[in-house]
């Protein structure tokens, strides 16, 4: 009886550990975010970084959320004056269906509105920070959703309410974030500024992971590869629980140990759930 309780506790611990590790990994992904390195003229090196306060369980299309933005000067060997004249950011739907893919959800701009300084000064010691607050039920998203169900503007009746469940069921897989910086670099010989463009594009998937948006078929292949890896993991975990459950169930029946048989049945059930997720979801 003591051995049966020990096995039951062990199985329960493994299930909790698996769920906990998965949640922590995804939470770390969204908090860690994504970074890009940019090489500018005059051997200037700039790093742009993006992350969110939200975790993998709260990144939802229809919820209000944020993306933190940081631009750092890693190297400026000639000590040139660098300004961020303007920043523009868009958040749009990343979806499998062409009608929904690319629908704008929110947008923002940042620049100095008054004074003689043409932009925000940045240096190795003074990075640029901004926070992109993304509205869940924005006017752009609502209008785009209605437009999608009205036959791309041809007229018709809206068939589904704009809800998180319906958005996901329609093939939306995440949020595409596109950020453009107008960077001003001062020419010491003339005292005038010239402009350099930095453009970053990435996707925050509904599981909280960040990936660079490669576009075209390459992006779709990356999504499918991620799904295939997740399905393989579910398959392996499901088989382990299923086989372990069969062994425990047979031992319990053979030894007339009801507790051991129950543990085996529970393990089989857990295995079946993982297998269903691997093959169906």
Describe the structure.
By secondary structure, this protein is α+β, with helices and mostly antiparallel strands. Helices cover 39% and strands 31% of the residues. The chain contains five helices and ten strands, in the order H-E-E-E-E-E-E-E-H-H-E-E-E-H-H. It has helices at residues 2-32, 139-149, 164-169, 216-254, 258-279, and strands at 34-40, 44-51, 65-75, 82-95, 104-110, 120-122, 128-134, 172-186, 193-205, 210-212. The strands form two sheets. Strands 4, 5, 6, 8, 9 and 10 form a six-stranded antiparallel β-sheet that branches. Helix 4 (216-254) runs antiparallel to helix 5.
Secondary structure tally: strands: 10
- As for the CATH topology of the largest domain, it is Immunoglobulin-like
> Which CATH architecture of the largest domain is right?
Sandwich
Secondary-structure-derived class:
alpha+beta
Give the CA-CA distance, first to last residue: 38 Å
Number of domains: 2
User: Which whole number gives the mean pLDDT?
Assistant: 82
CATH superfamily of the largest domain: Immunoglobulins
Order of helices and strands: HEEEEEEEHHEEEHH
Short account of what is shown:
With 281 residues, the chain is an alpha+beta fold.
Entry keywords:
single chain, 281 residues, alpha+beta, Immunoglobulin-like, 2 domains, 6-stranded antiparallel sheet, 4-stranded antiparallel sheet
